[in-house]
Design goal:
With 110 residues, this protein is an all-alpha fold. The chain contains four helices and no strands. The chain has one domain. The radius of gyration is 15 Å and the shape is globular.
Length: 110
């Protein structure tokens, strides 16, 4: 997870992060986010799920981490462009555009 954490701290954080990742995946499925991506608050979860997948890839089941990463990337490749139109608009206005893109940047830059 991080070279700055002790082994005991990693052992504490790892299962917490795994549980959160499963919860994010479940929430995205419950909201049917791939089919109906209009839930603005849910739209930050793919980035968090992607970061969890990247963070845990050497710390947890690789197949599960790959599934989470693929899920996040699939959403960014095929779902979130619905926010932009020909004029570069955002469904809920420019405030949401500036606010919500900050949730995606850490994942994109990872």
């Amino acid at each position: 997870l991080s070279p700055l954490l002790t082994g005991e701290e990693r052992d504490f954080v790892r299962p917490l992060l795994v549980r959160l990742a499963f919860q994010m995946e479940e929430r995205l499925e419950q909201d049917q986010f791939k089919q109906f991506p209009g839930h603005s608050h849910t739209s930050r979860l793919p980035a968090y799920l992607g970061i969890a997948a990247l963070t845990l890839h050497k710390e947890f089941d690789i197949t599960t981490c790959e599934r989470w990463l693929d899920y996040a990337l699939t959403i960014y490749r095929g779902v979130l462009p619905f926010y932009g139109g020909e004029d570069g608009s955002w469904v809920e206005g420019p405030f949401y555009s500036s606010s919500y893109t900050k949730w995606h940047h850490p994942f994109f830059l990872a």
